[in-house]
Amino acid sequence: MKQETGNVAEKTATVKEKKKTATKKKAGTKKYLVIVESPAKASTIGKFLGSNYKITASMGHIRDLPKSQMGIDIEHDFEPKYITIRGKGELLSKIKRDAKAADKVFLATDPDREGEAISWHLMQALHLGEDKDISRITFNEITKSAVKRSITQAREIDMDLVNAQQARRVLDRMVGYTVSDLLWKKVKKGLSGGRVQSVALRIVCDREEEIREFIPVEYWTIGAKLKNEAMKKSFEARFYGKGDERMDLPDAQIVQPIVETLKNADFVVQEVKKGTRQKKPVAPFTTSTMQQEASKHLNMATQKTMMVAQQLYEGVNIKGEGHVGLVSYIRTDSFRISDEAYEAAVAYITDAFGQEFVNPERVVYKSKGKTQDAHEAIRPTNVTRTPDSIKDSLTKEQYKLYKLIWDRFVASQMAPALYNTLQMKMKADAYTFRASGSHLTFRGFLEVYSKGEEEAEVAIPDLQEGDVLHAEEVLPEQHFTQPPARYTDASLIKTLEEIGVGRPSTYAPTLTTIQARHYVTKEAKVLYPTELGEVVNDIMKTYFMDIVDIDFTANMEERLDEVEMGQEEWKQILRDFYPGFHEAVENAAEQLAKIEIKDEQTDIVCEKCGRNMVIKYGRYGKFLACPGFPDCQNAKPFFEEAGVNCPQCGSKVLIRKTKKGRTYYGCENNPECSFMSWNKPTGEKCPKCGGYLVEKGKKNPKIVCADEKCGYIKEIEPQSEEE
Question: pTM for this one?
Fold first, then answer.
């Protein structure tokens, strides 16, 4: 019996010892949870961390302001009311279970303001800070070394970044929710106004107004094809002036006597200057410049550019390598690159092109204005991973954009292109002509990136002072000044960046929104405001001047940046902004009630039910609809009469719309009659050339000849409001 008791005690001790050992082993193998935003990012990171790391994705934001209400407690110091985003409940529960099973949680959302806010919301929603070891990690590129380094450099959540995001979100919600609600009530459903989008719309509308007001001005140039007996080919020189004074050539009356004099004159070389010139390499991409170049050279819309760039950043499945992050973080306004990236670029350029193609000194590209320098410029994560070497693993869009980023980065660290230059001054009678040429002697960075950078060479013979030439031809040419160009995606982004409105993360969504709302339409890459866009812009300029004021908005952006740098208290911005904004809203609500747009009844009878149709306001402007909706859903285009007859066939001129919503004036007999004008015809003939006259401009209205070569202009007095 004693022996059995002893055996039992021995067995019990052995079991306890085994349990103790197992517990020790278990304690030694800690479990970690890493939370990122997207499954693609999770897949890439999963390659770099061991089996004791579990990677899960939050699928973007987990909490936000509610959609059904403003979600800001104005009376309690603008406290935001966050809720779990609809449809995210089950995902949140799963992440909670994963977090509970882990010994430590790493929040690895994107390394910017938005990413910091997502991490903070996750911590709040999961109640992670209370009983769980939690750390924030960031990496500028998704590579093994960067991810592992981030674990060793884990930190706490940066509340300055979080508060910067909160300030922007609350401010944008305050403006967007209130103004949009007003537009819905007073104009039509589905409209919206916003802090950045309203400025972007104003810029497009202001440019359209400039174009409408623009009156072409005539000017002339004179070229001369010159040669002497020793030369095989002639070259062209351009008229400069009389003696050393520059001379304008406004009309044919001034040009004709000069041309007659030049036909028989000797052209004597007075001065020859030879020199060299450098063309410096381009800087690596920021978000803005990447979007601009992708639009210009790849015909890629900004939203598409950002979607493809996000794929390249988060990781693509590369043959032989698995899931690999190909580019550094894509939302940045910095030109800076790391020492490691610079050294890798220099090594690659030396090996691929030769030492002479390496820039003799490290170039530091300077940004304009305030730059959030936390991130590097956009660059490949591994410069030896050339575009062609991974082309088979990429989609067509991924390859094109990766090549653009790779080419730009490599070129940014290469030597300048070198040119030999020649400038020549010649005298012909009392007049001066000039010619200049250049010859590329060393391609430098152009070997890799020549998009829009390479210049056409102009050959000029090597002449000496005193050499005499004669004119084979004298070439007078009439020109007219051109209106400012309409914006493209690329030029609008560039303008927003230059004036300090919006930030790298907002350019693409802003352009998408103003087009989705049908405020702006795009034809052949060019942006035009629609009739609806101009109505909304007029309302914003009248009642919300601060919102669409460029300086006010740029100053607001600077204050928001100061929150990010810990130099401004985020709610103070809201306290300063709200009183004036609230007063503007109250005023607009009262005033707009007096000019509410109503359906206008017509004498056009609905062919389906017999009711008189009404004029309604849609996304592309006015249209005819049956008032019996929804019982009768008949609708058709409304062609308003312009009040004049067609200058070609005498029929009525109608105000029409292109498929994209742009207004023009066309004959009712189209397509039999081809008359079409972007400006409203007056119905009168030009007294100078017999062509037709059109109205031009609103601020400074004029009647001008439709044929700009005629040049007829008649000033008219603007009508008063009573008229």
Answer: 0.82
